[in-house]
Amino acid sequence: MKVPTEALRSKARQIRATCIQMAHDGKEGHLSSALSPVDILVALYWNWLHITPTKAPGRDRFLLSKGHGCASLYAILAEKGVFPLSVLATYNQENSALPNHPCVHALPVLETSSGSLGHGLGIATGMVYGMRLKQDPGRVVVLLGDGECNEGSVWESAMFAAAHGMDRLLGIVDYNGIQAVGRSDEIMGHTRLEDKFRSFGWSARAIDGSNMDEIVSALSEVPFETGKPTAIVAHTRAGVSFMNDDVLWHYRKPTDEELRQALQELDVQSIYVGSPHA
Amino acid sequence: MRRAFANGLEQLADADDRVVFLTGDLGFQVFDAFVAKHGRRYVNVGIAEAQMVAAAAGLALEGFRPFVYSIASFMTARPFEQFRFCVAYPKLPVIAVGAGGGYTYGPSGVSHHAPDDLALMSLLPNMTVVAPGDPHEVSALLPQLLQLDSPSYMRIGKFGEPPLDVPAPVVLGKARLLRTGERVAILTTGNMAAHALDACRHLAAAQIHPSVYHFHTVKPLDTTTLDHLARSVEALLIVEESSPMGGLGAEVLKYIRGADSGPRVLRLGPPDAFALGSYRQETLQQRWGYDAPAIDRACRCLWNNTQTTLGSS
């Protein structure tokens, strides 16, 4: 199942273009939150996770704990054929399968709903505990935001996972440096999350989360240590020059001109037929 | 009730591999037999209620029937968001058990009081909420909760409550007729059933015979029984050790008052206030006027159709 890194990079550009088109058409912000984890998600879905839409035993489970970044997950699921590409045009519409925070009632292929922060890791630890009891060999991956790691519940879960030696649990922090009203480093102090996870009993590593080679290499070494949960603190960027490292793009909906510029820079079109006009 | 819970849990786990028990570091020696038999299905999560409930959600997603257990105040208010978002919203069959509901832990102070557990859990769509009145009701309700494909909360008290000693079956969702009577019906939930029966023994000497209906199930509300009572009695006396907002009293009042006509309704129970002063449970019940003597007084007034002056003597 290994896909060449260059192909993953190309896929990531396409998914980014799709997210921007979705934010433009659906008039929904949280665009930088969707763009920053794209490289990680592409590497996971094309190169690492064993996922089955029918939730078969033995599959890997993926939980998008930072639910507000869901446009990227939706685009990936569509590209993977889980639902038709045209459904992406319903993003953020009323009664859509693709609301702006994922809902398992709307899209049952998801393992969980998300949108409220600090829950994915705890749910994942319960899944891992249960999978052990029933001898299901799957792995569980949780994607968290760096802002989400402000939540105390994340650290309750981190302690639990380490106490139970959950080495089939992988937590990836999308460290884009941005949260709702400022920079995460300034709000919670200039601290290194990988050190925090290590001190909680995890095996942790920081990587450049926008560098596909580093992502693929880190994933190939999971679990980093037998008997410990793995944390990858991925320092990420939006991946479009004028959206990188800017709190504004946590909210802003792209205008027609910004959409055109972004697609031009990425040099690729959305995977579904979007509208050039908002 | 705690012994009944521990025994009932053990029996359920014997028969059903899906039962997993998570505790928030509570129940010293209470679950030793369970641990001895089902060690892998016993998890002390530590003093981390939010994590306990989120992990229970994960277990339920994997097909298990997790029980979570702590002191009622820490079981409900603290991880409320986890119940709302991780459990109730996806409608997962997690069974929460709060020990020491109401003012069981009176002397321990406001931190340990749980007059609001029933109201909080009742707020959540998909939730079933029960407050058994004696150990037998705990034992009888547990397997019925396990049958649900949705979440539930059970308030239990302490150790050693006497049995109500009533033959009527315990059916989830159905008020239990503890004592037949006429004209006035006492509606109880949780630990108030014993007080009501106590009061009735004194009232009988005065030829006053209220019926007693025990609402061990607070949600869903047994409106069939309420409809019947609305047509057949002159007065309802609700007795609860629960916040005046959102518990049995509030729900019954809302339901009965919605009708054009019906019986007079009174509610005995704690006010909307923190119980300061580290009083014992019995003292609070006496001071706030919902112990057996207070029920006795209220029934006499309702029976004689006089204006009641409720509260402590």
What can you see in these coordinates?
The complex is a heterodimer of chains A (278) and B (313). Chain A is of the alpha/beta class and 278 residues long. Chain A has one domain (5-266): 3-Layer(aba) Sandwich (Rossmann fold). Chain A is built from ten helices and seven strands. In chain A, the strands form two sheets. A five-stranded parallel β-sheet of chain A has the order 1-2-3-7-6, sandwiched between helices. In chain A, strands 4-5 form a two-stranded antiparallel ribbon. The longest helix of chain A is centred in the first third of the chain and has 22 residues, at 5-26. Chain A starts with a helix and ends in a 12-residue tail after the last helix. The mean pLDDT of chain A is 95. Chain B is α/β, with parallel strands linked by helices and 313 residues long. Chain B has two domains: 2-156, Thiamin diphosphate (ThDP)-binding fold, Pyr/PP domains (Rossmann fold, 3-Layer(aba) Sandwich), CATH 3.40.50.970; 176-303, Rossmann fold, CATH 3.40.50.920. Helices cover 38% and strands 17% of the residues of chain B. Chain B has twelve helices and twelve strands. Chain B has helices at 2-15, 32-38, 49-61, 72-76, 80-88, 117-122, 135-146, 192-205, 223-232, 248-257, 281-287, 292-303; strands at residues 19-23, 42-44, 65-71, 95-99, 128-130, 152-156, 176-179, 184-188, 211-214, 217-219, 235-239, 264-268. In chain B, the strands form two sheets. A seven-stranded mixed β-sheet of chain B has the order 2-1-3-4-6-5-10, with helices on both faces. Chain B has a five-stranded mixed β-sheet with strand order 7-9-8-11-12, sandwiched between helices. In chain B, strand 8 (184-188), helix 8 (192-205) and strand 9 (211-214) form a beta-alpha-beta unit. In chain B, helix 3 runs parallel beside helix 5 (80-88). The mean pLDDT of chain B is 95.
